[in-house]
Design goal:
It is found in: Cytoplasm. Keywords: Actin-binding, ATP-binding, Cytoplasm, Motor protein, Nucleotide-binding, Repeat. Belongs to the TRAFAC class myosin-kinesin ATPase superfamily. Myosin family. InterPro entries: Band_41_domain, FERM/acyl-CoA-bd_prot_sf, FERM_2, FERM_central, FERM_domain, IRS_PTB, MyTH4_dom, MyTH4_dom_sf. The chain has about 625 residues and is of the alpha+beta class. The protein has four domains: about 130 residues, Roll (Ubiquitin-like (UB roll)); about 240 residues, Serine Threonine Protein Phosphatase 5, Tetratricopeptide repeat (Alpha Horseshoe), CATH 1.25.40; about 100 residues, Acyl-CoA Binding Protein (Up-down Bundle); about 100 residues, PH-domain like (Roll). It has 21 helices and 15 strands. The protein has a seven-stranded antiparallel β-sheet with strand order 12-11-10-9-15-14-13, covered by helices on one side. Strands 1-4-5 form a three-stranded mixed β-sheet. A hairpin with a 3-residue loop joins strand 14 and strand 15. The longest helix has 18 residues. The chain is elongated and about 95 Å long. The two termini are about 50 Å apart.
Amino acid sequence: MPHERVSRGSGYQGARSPSPNQRQAYTLSSNSRAARTPSPNRRKSARSPSPTRKAANSSKSQVHRSEAMSFSTTRNGVHSPTQIRKAERSKSPARNGFHSLPARKPKSKGPYTLERFAMMNFSVKPAKRPTVATKSGSNTGSIWQHTTEPIQKPLLQHLLRDQQLSSRACSAFKAIMKYMGDYPTKKTNLQGTQMTDKIFTDALRLDGLKDEIYCQIIKQLTNNTLNVSEERGWELMWLATGLFSPSDTLQPELGKFLRLAHHTLAEDCQRRLLAVSQLTQQRKYPPHWVEVETIQHHYTQIFHFIFLPDDKSNASFQVSSTMTVGDLCKSIANRLGLKSNKGFGLFLIMASRIIAMHEESDFFFDALRRQIDWEQEGIKSAKKSDMPVLAYQMFFLRKIWTDVVPGDDVQADTVFHYHQELPKFLRGYYSCPPEDAAKLAALQFRARYGNDKTEMQNIAKRLSDFLPEDLVKSRSVDDWKRAIISAYNQPWITSMTKDAAKVAFLKIMYRWPTFGSSFFEAAKVTGSDNTEDVLLAINKHGILIIDAQSKEVQKTFPYSEIQGWAGSGQSDFFLTVGNESKGAMKLHFKTKLGYKMDDLLTSYVRYMQKRPSSGQHSNNNKTL
């Protein structure tokens, strides 16, 4: 693929861009590629096809099978009332419309088929004599094995009662055939997730189709003598077992098929199926393109690239089809050696928007699909592509600053807190006392260069790299140069390591009331046509209204006084504040970042509600 080389000695890197024109945001540096750890469980590229198997049992066992399932006779052939009642129960379908099969050991250790299951549950009954393999490799005469002809009705008999399910089942089977190469289609239709979306989307929404999809995939893998077709069929099986589990009736059949299958993916499919069956919820969206490309590149381990604020610790983290957002946050925190993952979150950056993935219980790939699909739907001018039309980057950042105390977790301070607070300081969002400014500039210099003082001679030309613009203008260049050099030469700074300087920088800022804030430039609507430029800050204290020029806090609304908030249109944000004694007051702001304020307020309120001793939150906090 352009701009990238994928080594078969490692797990598939899932942070790549969807198309050649959009890969720059995802292309890893050579150092990042070299740092990948080889995947021990990668899928082998060479596989032997499943051997052809005979299709039918003896006609005698087929003729008498239904009687054996329905009745149990006495030695002299007379049925007792109890036995008749049992027989009547055995003839009724199972909960999902299936007939149960009698316990029976397979005659051989060869690949397992759905022949016996099809006898009782398929809409078309299997042929009673062996099938014949055609020159094209397809088998004719048996509904339970590979074919190159589309089906005209669903495989499962009980789906015939629902016209919608029947139609969608047939459409899904044709998509399976196209993906496997068993039905002609344009090559462009096989790119991205177009086919996999058609196969799995309806099954994820309609429980009645889940078993149908599994039966269709098993059918196309049974006695399939076409190597390429079989490989692609196993790719679909691998994807399916990471999305949803079958019904209790089909579970034994699928389990036997996977256990007895002669394919390198079968064992991994069993592991994925076990993981899915143990979940309290299942996936809601079809496979993300990262999952699809992973298995298409013959890998079974998925890695996604995560960006970190220090821009040095960026790395690939292993994810799975059943990993939640919260699970990934814990995995990242553990690998980085953080004391806790509380307050951290994943952020999706695409199309100049920063979107927080705040629902920790969401599956990671579901959250990605949802956000990307929403963005795609909002694009009207461009023709919708089946690969993500928007390049994205995934960041792991500190989101909630309620429990942050500089020095308590040095790793978090040096990788996250320092690098997240520094840009806000340099943009001039903080009201910085003059006596702190020179110290903060000196600590930045120490954190960047350590013992190397050669760049200090250029400090006069680079003041804007270390101080906000408004502070630079408040004094002469020479005054700032002397003040910064004097602060830097103090023993308590010259003895510091780079990391210690970062922590010291944070400890100074920690004394300020706006430390750890997220800032939003806005205009406060004071009348029908009058507005006033302000800064809105959201932090552990609540919402702060700050003068845009002086950076002085004008008003603080603690969470206990915030009654609700709402966004209207693309630039209006309404905030309702007050208490029982003062009554409610509605504030109106103009800002394009209302969606971020909404998300952050929701996150802080939820966090406060989990800490009842804080006394800050109110159970009435809600969006309007």
